[in-house]
Amino acid sequence: MNTQPIGIFDSGVGGTSIWTAIHALMPHENTLYLADSAHAPYGTKSKEAIIALSKKNTEYLMGQGCKIIVVACNTATTNAITVLRETYNIPFIGIEPAIKTAALQTKTQTIGILATKGTLSSELFSKTSGAFTGSIKIIEQVGEGIVELIEDGKLFSKEMKALLKLYLNPMITANIDYLVLGCTHYPYLMPLLLELLPKHVKIIDSGEAVARQTKAVLVKHDLLNLQTKKAQNRFFTNGNTRVIATLLGEKYKVDYLNF
Ligand code: DGL
Q1: Closest by CA position to 81, among listed 121, 45, 54, 110
Q2: pLDDT tens across 73-87, in order?
Q3: Which of 15, 98, 247, 259 is most buried, by CB atoms within 10 Å?
Q4: Higher-confidence residue: 135 or 67?
Q5: Ligand 1: which atom is nearest the Cα of residue 73?
Q6: Is the pLDDT of residue 1 over 90?
Q7: What's the rounded mean pLDDT across residues 145-170?
Q8: What is the pTM of this model?
């Protein structure tokens, strides 16, 4: 069982940012990554649709013998992880925008969050952010169109830069000192974000925290892979294999899967 892969899924290519953190922390773990790019973006879909797609992804990964499932998607986590945990007998790790980290550290009492509509309108998110409203100002911005451009392989395009300017400028004017990335596609925007944001604004992404949490849960369930041989890392997408391969620096083979 311990040599079985860690299953990771996202609505598309973004969750590879989480895979990278997991692989860096646990290089001997076998992994299986599933990108449901044919159905991206999840962020504009109803809660029911997000749950149905998340179940389908989970069942595929469980069918492949995965020992744990990492929901490498804020939108799927905030809308579906409760149902997934109730439905399947396997440990789940989710990812949520790291509002708390930013809220506890802000000096300007103002933080920005960029996430999908599905995440920002979810109950789970309102609970987390609700705990801080009153003490600090949270500027929520839907990153409409960003996931689509990344899925299209237009990460560093003119359109992307224009969208980011539109979304970040009101936050800059409001004097944020933290920007929380609430979507696993967004860490790939880092060079553009660094260019567009003032130097003092810190950017928070939860990839490493998710990797640490995954390891802790594997240890707790006695599922850590103790072998030292090279891990097997497999990537599947029902979209464009080239986009993922490029994001992974052309170091891994990505296979097309019709699902
Ligand atoms: N990577 C997903 C997330 O973290 C993108 C959601 C979408 O497909 O809209 O929310």
Answers
A1: 54
A2: 999 999 999 999 999
A3: 15
A4: 67
A5: 4
A6: no
A7: 98
A8: 0.97
Domains of the chain listed by start with CATH number: 6-95+207-256 (3.40.50.1860), 99-204 (3.40.50.1860)
Residue of 42, 54, 124, 238 with the most ligand 1 atoms within 8 Å of its CB, for mutation:
42
What is the per-residue pLDDT for 205? 94
Report CA torsion sign: 16, 19, 23, 28: negative
- Burial bucket for residue 222 (CB in 10 Å: 0-12, 13-18, 19+): exposed
Give pLDDT tens digits for 109-121.
Answer: 999 999 999 999 9
Strand order in the sheet with 31-35: 92-93, 68-71, 6-10, 31-35, 233-237, 254-256
> If we measure between CA atoms, which residue out of 38, 14, 41 comes closest to residue 188?
14
What is the atom index within ligand 1 of the atom nearest the CA of 15?
1
pLDDT score at 49:
98
66 is catalytic: no
Query: Tokens for 127?
Result: 């609970």
8 Å CB contact between 183 and 113: no
Task: Select which of 69, 73, 113, 115 is catalytic.
Answer: 73
Task: Look at residue 59 and give its three-state secondary structure.
Answer: helix
Six token digits for residue 129: 């952010």
The whole-angstrom separation of Cα 201 and Cα 193 is 10
91: cis peptide before it, omega within 30°? no
pLDDT value at residue 135: 85
